[in-house]
Each structure stands twice: as C-alpha cells, then as structure tokens.
Design a protein that fits this description.
6 helices, Chorismate lyase, 8 strands, 6-stranded antiparallel beta sheet
C-alpha cells in the first residue's frame, strides 16, 4: 500500500497498464500496432476555455490564458473506445505552428506530433474517475500544449484478455 503526501492511500497501477502509461512516442502508433492496424479517432467536443490553474502553471502560462480544447475517443479493434483523450492548446500555441491541430478533424494528433520529430515531453500519471491517465506536456516547435489520455476499462479488459490468451 502506498500513501501520498496528503495521507491518502494510493491505488496501485495495474501491471498491464504500467507500460502504456509510461511509454514514450506515439500512442497512435502503439494502439494501431496492438489492434492489428485498426485505429480511429472520434471527436466529441471542441471548445475554448480558460486554462486551469494547474495546467497554466505546468505550461508556465498566465492562468487567465484561453485555450482551445479537443476532446475525443480513441478506438482500436473493438466497438468500445479504449482511450478518452483531451488536448489543451493555449491560444499562443495556436498562433504559431500548432495551429494545424485545430483543423485535423478525425485525424490523430500523434500523426502530426511525431512526424519527423521527437517533441520534448514532461509527463505525470494520475488516477481519474474514468481510469488511469497520463498527462503529457509537450513542447513542439516552440509551442506548449497538454495531451491527456485516460485508459478506459474496456482497454484494460482487452489487455487482460490478451495476457491470459498469450
């Protein structure tokens, strides 16, 4: 049992998820490989909102700064989504090279983010209501933004089935 700095008991990360939460590189490519070439993105919501204090601090931006947020589900080879993704692009980043992310529709962010580049990445792993989540703060061509990926229960079940079958 682990206890965090506030005295709360921390849950253990399931072994099958640990490698996914801490993997570097493109989650798009990794999920596509796991799903034998199948992968799709279903955008759910795109909107403007102020940065949260925590996100602003992490990106070293003013907390009153506005961002463009894209929320979507990522699918592999099953009918249920595997990942709930949320990308947070500060307006300053959208005024530069990252503006292309605002117009990618159903294309995965990873297709552009990792194309001929290895962006700097700071990562934190947390447990949210929907599941274990990795939050990545990328610096890509001088633009900072956050990509949050929550691995859903159906993905964990898929991994468990694969582990018991293989």
């Amino acid at each position: 049992m682990q206890i965090n700095s506030t005295g709360k008991v921390m849950q253990h990360i399931p072994a099958e998820l640990k490698t996914w939460l801490y993997a570097s590189g493109s989650l798009t490519q990794q999920l596509t490989g796991l799903a034998d070439g199948e992968f799709s993105v279903q955008p759910v919501k795109e909107h403007f909102q102020r940065l949260t204090f925590s996100d602003a601090k992490w990106m070293r931006m003013p907390p009153q700064h506005t961002s463009w947020v894209r929320e979507s589900y990522l699918y592999g080879c099953e009918a249920q989504p595997w990942v709930r993704a949320k990308s947070i692009f500060p307006i300053l980043s959208l005024q530069r090279r990252a503006r292309l992310f605002k117009h990618i529709g159903k294309k995965p962010i990873g297709r552009f983010l990792f194309q001929r580049t290895r962006p700097a990445c700071e990562r934190r792993v947390i447990r949210l209501e929907d599941g274990w989540t990795r939050q990545s703060c990328y610096t890509w061509h001088g633009c900072k933004f956050i990509v949050q990926e929550t691995f859903l229960a159906d993905f964990e079940q898929f991994l468990q089935k694969q582990n018991s079958a293989g």
